[in-house]
Amino acid sequence: MKALEVLKEHRTYRNFDENYQISDDELQNILQASRQAPSWMNGQMYSIIVVKDREIREKMVALNPGNPHMLHSSVLLVFVADLKRTKKVAEHYGVDYPVNEGLDPLITAVTDAALALENAVIATEALGLGSVVVGSIRKDIAEVSELLNLPEYVLPIAGLSIGKPNVEMRSKPRLPEEAVIHYDTYQDYDYQLIEDYDDTMEKFAEARETKNWSKKFADYFSNKPNQKIDEFLKMKKFFS
């Protein structure tokens, strides 16, 4: 498939053929495409954990039962922000490594991981397969980190379940362009655009949604952010 077609037709799949096994060539093509993602200064401050072990995946689903596809897909990739590699470099040269004194290194590593993740999504769809990004692995971030034996300076960002879809999905409508695209400077917009999008998504009628788009995020952000993330960042030396 042509790149633009793949990008414009993106959709998320959550149901996979459990009998389908991704080939080694397919997996390597996805991983190679992922590793060619752009990164700050070519720092590549991420790592990819390829999770095939059924027991590990069962434990991840036990922590996150709303995402059974982590077990039923052909493979689960976990993308992590990785500042451990540059810690090794600092130790090699005998220089300080004060990454816990500001947010910029963390933002850089998270961005690198996200770019690699998106390349994997595109490559997966170009191969005629499907995927779903699993950001909720951060809900139990310490337990997931222990399962995957992640060292200090390594932060789980998201999983990616990949497989052969067995339920067709529609391409989900996006926010109106006027609410997202800004030229030259950020420009405010009328709230009516958000209400219009609520109507669009209501007509789209995704079965798993129980609230309209705006109410879902009003409720989500009315709660205090997940404090486990803050605790984990300190434990893993991202913050002093």
Automatic annotation (TrEMBL):
<keyword id="KW-0288">FMN</keyword>
<keyword id="KW-0285">Flavoprotein</keyword>
<dbReference type="Pfam" id="PF00881">
    <property type="entry name" value="Nitroreductase"/>
</dbReference>
<dbReference type="InterPro" id="IPR029479">
    <property type="entry name" value="Nitroreductase"/>
</dbReference>
<dbReference type="InterPro" id="IPR016446">
    <property type="entry name" value="Flavin_OxRdtase_Frp"/>
</dbReference>
<dbReference type="InterPro" id="IPR000415">
    <property type="entry name" value="Nitroreductase-like"/>
</dbReference>
<protein>
    <submittedName>
        <fullName>Nitroreductase family protein</fullName>
    </submittedName>
</protein>
<keyword id="KW-0560">Oxidoreductase</keyword>
<comment type="similarity">
    <text>Belongs to the flavin oxidoreductase frp family.</text>
</comment>
<keyword id="KW-0521">NADP</keyword>
<feature type="domain" description="Nitroreductase">
    <location>
        <begin position="8"/>
        <end position="163"/>
    </location>
</feature>
